[in-house]
Amino acid sequence: MFDLGLLIKNLRKQSGLTQKQLAKKLNVTVTTIGRWESNYKIPSINRLIQMASIFHVPLNYIAGIEKERSIVTDNLTQRQQNILNTLVLEFQSDNKNNYGLSERQQDILNAVLIEFNY
Length: 118
Description:
Layout: H1 4-14, H2 19-26, H3 30-37, H4 45-55, H5 59-62, H6 78-92, H7 103-115
Helix pairs in contact: 2-3, 6-7
């Protein structure tokens, strides 16, 4: 069974936020956050949308529709998104090298390091 309150609490903690900090970001009281996390109250759809943005997860994940957490890349450049997509596809492929990384995998990881080194 889906536990929205536990999900909110876990996402908040993974984001390094206290209840007070999350309450401030959402313009609600700490009591409201506590009620959501204990499943005493359910957040409005607008609050769920705000939380999805704050926690960088799809709304479907917060709503319990998607069981796997996705990576949200909205704030990345198109080049960064392309590199990450290539990385995921490369490491999902069946062409696994038994002895370390292939040259292509090394090149992709190198591109990640260069592109994300702010």
